C-alpha cells in the first residue's frame, strides 16, 4: 500500500515537472503570450487614438498648491497630434550645409530652418510657438530661479533640470522664463552688465520673446513661481512626485507612433528635445564659436601618422570630414558618480567598428575630454589593435581643440581660466564639433555624452548613425538621474 502510494507520488511529481517544463519552454506557451501582449497593445493604441481626454491617473479637482496638473489637450495640441506620423519632406540641407548653419545663427527662426524636415522638427516648432505667443499681456509665466548649489553642476546637468521646468510650463500653459537676479547656471557667465544679466539667455536664444516684471527681485529661497494668471500648483512637489515629467501631448504623440514605448525612452526623448530647445545658441555665441572653430583665440589641432610611423601635423577641416568618429572621454570629477572608462577602451571599440566597416570609415576621430592626460595619451597613440585586424587604414588621424583643461569639475575650471562666458562657449564648441562627426563612441552614463546624443539627434540628421557604448550597462540604465 505504502509502496503504491509512493509510486503515485513520484508519477505525480514527474507529470507536474513535465507540465511546468511545458509551461515555461513550450513554443506554444510563447505564442499564447505573444497574442496576449499584442492584444494589450492594440487596446492601448485604441485608447491613445481617441485622445483629448485627460489621463486617468490625474484627479479631477485640483486642490490648493497641489502636486498634480489637470491637463487638457487644447486646439494647438490637437493640431500637433494630427501632424504626428504624417510623412515630412526630407531636409533640403546637406550635411555640410547644416553644420555651417550652426555657425551662422542670426535669429531664433534660423533654428527652425536648420531642423526643418528632421524627425522631430514639429516638436521644436511646437515648443517655440508655446514660448513665443502673439501677445505677452495675458500670459501666465513660470519663473525659474537658481538651483541650490548649482555652481557645482555642469552644463548638461543644469539643462536637464531646466527641462523639468520647461515640461511643467508646457503642461500648465505657461511660459518659462529665467529669474534675472540669480538665474540658474549663472556661474557659466561673466558679469557683463547686459540686460540678460548672467542668465543663459545671454549665450542661448532667449527662452521666450515675452518678459515679466516678476523675473526681477525673486528671493533666493524660492525655486520657481508663477506670475500672471495664478495656478494652484506647487511645482517642486509636482516634480518630486513625477520625477521625469514629459508633457502629455508628447507622450500621446510618441504612443501614437509606438504604443509600447517605454518610460525610459519617454524620459530620454523629452530631455533631448528640451536640451535642443534650451541650448539654441544666439548670434553672439554663434559668432564666437565660428572664431574659435576657425582657429582665432583657440587652436584646432590635428595629427596623422605617416607611413614611416612619425606623427605630422594636419589641418582640421571645416566641417570635419565625413565619417569622423567622435570620442568624448568623460573623466574629471565624474569618478564619484560612475566608473570611469579608460581611453583605450574607446579606441579599441572604434577600431573594431572601422575594422567591421572598412569601406565606409577611415580611422579619423575628434577627441573631446576635460582630462589633459587623455590628450597626451592620444598624441602618442597610432593604433592599438594589430595591423592585421585593422580595417581601412592602420593609423589614426586625431583632431582636438586646444582649450584649457583641468581634470576637475566645471566650477574649478571656470574659476581658473578667466572669462567664464568664453570658456562656456569653448565647451559648447566641443559639443558642436562632436556632432559634426558621424560615429559616436561614448558612455550614456555621462550627461555630456547624453547631450551630444540629444543634439545630434534633434539639430542634425545624424541620429541614424551609430552610437557605440563603452560604459557599463549599470551606469547608464535609466539614462542617469
Ligand atoms: C529649403 O527649402 C526652403 C523652403 O522649402 C527654402 O526656403 C530654402 O531656401 C531651402 N534651402 C536650401 C539650402 O535649399
Ligand atoms: C514672438 O515671436 C513670434 C514668432 O517669432 C511672433 O509671431 C510673435 O508676434 C512675437 N510676440 C511678440 C509679443 O512680439
Ligand atoms: C551681443 O553682443 C553685442 C555687442 O557686443 C551686445 O551689445 C549684446 O548685448 C550682446 N547680446 C547678448 C544677448 O548678450
Ligand atoms: C594648413 O593650413 C595652412 C594655413 O591655411 C596652409 O598654409 C597649409 O598649407 C595647410 N596645410 C595642409 C597640409 O593642408
Ligand atoms: C568674455 O567673453 C565674452 C564672450 O566672448 C566677451 O563678450 C567679453 O567681452 C569677455 N569679457 C572680458 C572681460 O574679456
Automatic annotation (TrEMBL):
<feature type="transmembrane region" description="Helical">
    <location>
        <begin position="12"/>
        <end position="31"/>
    </location>
</feature>
<feature type="region of interest" description="Disordered">
    <location>
        <begin position="43"/>
        <end position="69"/>
    </location>
</feature>
<keyword id="KW-0472">Membrane</keyword>
<keyword id="KW-0812">Transmembrane</keyword>
<keyword id="KW-1133">Transmembrane helix</keyword>
<dbReference type="GO" id="GO:0006487">
    <property type="term" value="P:protein N-linked glycosylation"/>
</dbReference>
<dbReference type="GO" id="GO:0046921">
    <property type="term" value="F:alpha-(1-&gt;6)-fucosyltransferase activity"/>
</dbReference>
<protein>
    <recommendedName>
        <fullName>Mitochondrial inner membrane protein required for protein import</fullName>
    </recommendedName>
</protein>
Amino acid at each position: 500500500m505504502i509502496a503504491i502510494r509512493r509510486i503515485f507520488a513520484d508519477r505525480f511529481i514527474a507529470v507536474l515537472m513535465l507540465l511546468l517544463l511545458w509551461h515555461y519552454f513550450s513554443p506554444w506557451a510563447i505564442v499564447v503570450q505573444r497574442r496576449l501582449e499584442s492584444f494589450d497593445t492594440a487596446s492601448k493604441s485604441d485608447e491613445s487614438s481617441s485622445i483629448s481626454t485627460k489621463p486617468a491617473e490625474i484627479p479631477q479637482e485640483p486642490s490648493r498648491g497641489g502636486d498634480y496638473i489637470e491637463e487638457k489637450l487644447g486646439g494647438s495640441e490637437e493640431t500637433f497630434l494630427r501632424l504626428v506620423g504624417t510623412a515630412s519632406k526630407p531636409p533640403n540641407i546637406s550635411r555640410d550645409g547644416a553644420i555651417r548653419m550652426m555657425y551662422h545663427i542670426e535669429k531664433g527662426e534660423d533654428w527652425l530652418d536648420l531642423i526643418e524636415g528632421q524627425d522631430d522638427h514639429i516638436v521644436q516648432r511646437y515648443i517655440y510657438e508655446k514660448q513665443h505667443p502673439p501677445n505677452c499681456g495675458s500670459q501666465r509665466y513660470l519663473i525659474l530661479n537658481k538651483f541650490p548649489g548649482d555652481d557645482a553642476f555642469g552644463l548638461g546637468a543644469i539643462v536637464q533640470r531646466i527641462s523639468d521646468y520647461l515640461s511643467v510650463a508646457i503642461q500648465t500653459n505657461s511660459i518659462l522664463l529665467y529669474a534675472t537676479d540669480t538665474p540658474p547656471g549663472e556661474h557659466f557667465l561673466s558679469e557683463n552688465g547686459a540686460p540678460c544679466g548672467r542668465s543663459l539667455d545671454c549665450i542661448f536664444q532667449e527662452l521666450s520673446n515675452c518678459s515679466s516684471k516678476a523675473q526681477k527681485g525673486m528671493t533666493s529661497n524660492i525655486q520657481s513661481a508663477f506670475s500672471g494668471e495664478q495656478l494652484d500648483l506647487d511645482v517642486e512637489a509636482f516634480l518630486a512626485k513625477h520625477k521625469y515629467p514629459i508633457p502629455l501631448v508628447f507622450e500621446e504623440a510618441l504612443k501614437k507612433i509606438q504604443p509600447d514605448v517605454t518610460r525610459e525612452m519617454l524620459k530620454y526623448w523629452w530631455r533631448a528635445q528640451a536640451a535642443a530647445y534650451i541650448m539654441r545658441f544666439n548670434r553672439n555665441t554663434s559668432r564666437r564659436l565660428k572664431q574659435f572653430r576657425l582657429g582665432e583665440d583657440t587652436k584646432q589641432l590635428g595629427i596623422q601618422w605617416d607611413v614611416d610611423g612619425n606623427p605630422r601635423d594636419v589641418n582640421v577641416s571645416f566641417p570635419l570630414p565625413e565619417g569622423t568618429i567622435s570620442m568624448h572621454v568623460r573623466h574629471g570629477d565624474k569618478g564619484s558618480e560612475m566608473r570611469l572608462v579608460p581611453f583605450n577602451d574607446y579606441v579599441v571599440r572604434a577600431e573594431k567598428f572601422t575594422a567591421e566597416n572598412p569601406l565606409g570609415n577611415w580611422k579619423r576621430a575628434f577627441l573631446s575630454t576635460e582630462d589633459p592626460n587623455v590628450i597626451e595619451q592620444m598624441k602618442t597613440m597610432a593604433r592599438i589593435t594589430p595591423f592585421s585586424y585593422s580595417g581601412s587604414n592602420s593609423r589614426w588621424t586625431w583632431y582636438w581643440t586646444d582649450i584649457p583643461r583641468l581634470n576637475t569639475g566645471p566650477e574649478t575650471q571656470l574659476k581658473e581660466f578667466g572669462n567664464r562666458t568664453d570658456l562656456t562657449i569653448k565647451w559648447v564648441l566641443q559639443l558642436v564639433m562632436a556632432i559634426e562627426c558621424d560615429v559616436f563612441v561614448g558612455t550614456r552614463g555621462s550627461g555630456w555624452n547624453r547631450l551630444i546624443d540629444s543634439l545630434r539627434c534633434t539639430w542634425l540628421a545624424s541620429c541614424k548613425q551609430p552610437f557605440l557604448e563603452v560604459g557599463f550597462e549599470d551606469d547608464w540604465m535609466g539614462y542617469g538621474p
